[in-house]
Each structure stands twice: as structure tokens, then as C-alpha cells.
Amino acid sequence: MQPHFTGTALITDDVPALAAFYAAVLDADVEGSDPFARVMVPGAVLSFFSTQGMESMVPGSMAAAASGGFTLEFQVADVDARHERLRARGVEILKPPTTQPWGRRSVWLRDPDGNIVNLYQDA
């Protein structure tokens, strides 16, 4: 059987804040709290684990880790409406809604840890 991708975990110093941010962006509920929480969306689970918890499980594992070296992508129904709602909440918008040549309309934002989030819809 080929592996089935089920989600990813973001390692953070502030599990409750990062989980709350993604719950608001994705219109989802947070399950759990510090040191582990998750937000479930159709197709995958986005988990949050504390830096201290990770270090206690695997000492030295966070020495070379950094935030912002990837982009999380989520398909949404209406990029423009979501952009307006998030902008009104003070979310840092990196790139306003733009239609890309490859057929996606997307808005880019930054989460509290510096990771880039791409919310997109097919154009």
C-alpha cells in the first residue's frame, strides 16, 4: 500500500496561540491544549506540538529547526471573502488575492510563528 498523507505537525513555543490562529483561519475547532493540540479539516489533521515536548522526546531535535521554510496550502470556497474577514481581524497578509497563471486565485498570509499560509481556490 502506498503511504496515505494524513496531516502535519507544527512545532511551536505557543501551542494554544498557534492552534487558535489556525482554528480561526480554517473555521475549525481546536482539540487539546499544551503540549499537543490539533485542528481537523477535511482531508488532513493539522497538529501542534510544543518545542519543549519535542525536545523531551528527542533531545537535540530542535537545534536546526526553523519556521517559515515551507508553505501550508488550504483550498477554500471564496478567497476574496476569506481575505476580507482575515484582514479585518488583523491577520498579516503577505500577498493579497491574486490569480496565478496556473489557474489558482490565492491569498498568502503569515501565522504567528512566521510560517506562510496559502489559501486558494481554482480560478
UniProtKB/TrEMBL annotation:
Protein known as:
VOC family protein
Q: Which domain of life is it from?
A: Bacteria
Task: Show the Pfam families listed in the entry.
Answer: Glyoxalase
Q: Which residues form the VOC domain?
A: 4-122
Sorted alphabetically, which InterPro entries does this protein's record hold?
Anthracycline_SecMetBiosynth (IPR052164), Glyas_Bleomycin-R_OHBP_Dase (IPR029068), Glyas_Fos-R_dOase_dom (IPR004360), VOC_core (IPR037523)
Residues annotated as signal peptide: none
Check the record and name the Gene3D superfamilies matching this protein: 2,3-Dihydroxybiphenyl 1,2-Dioxygenase, domain 1
